[in-house]
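Database export, one record per block. Field names are fixed; values are copied verbatim from the stored entry.
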Amino acid sequence: MSKVAVIAKITTVSGQRDEVVEILRDVVRGADAEPGTLVYAMNIDKADADVIWFYELYTDDDAFAAHGKGSEAMKAAGPRLAGKTAGRPEITVLELVAAKGLPA
């Protein structure tokens, strides 16, 4: 079965990125308890002070679907993020073909 890779872009309200990053740290820690989540990496955009990127890698579609249902950490972060993001995340779903340093 093919691994599922995801790139997610979160745009924050101007000046709120650092606060959103702090809230999302709990979500990243919560991913440790998600079976099938291989990589869940939060990155800040060096060219845009209002953008956060996630790179995610899942063992399969089922693991990705389970993540999408929301962990307890993700559910807890929702209300704390209200008014701090400029809309819903932009999600791109991919299929991992080859990689260095990642379980392919």
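Remark 1: Residues 4-95 form a domain with the Alpha-Beta Plaits fold (CATH 3.30.70.100).
Remark 2: The helical segments are 17-30, 61-68, 72-81.
End of record.
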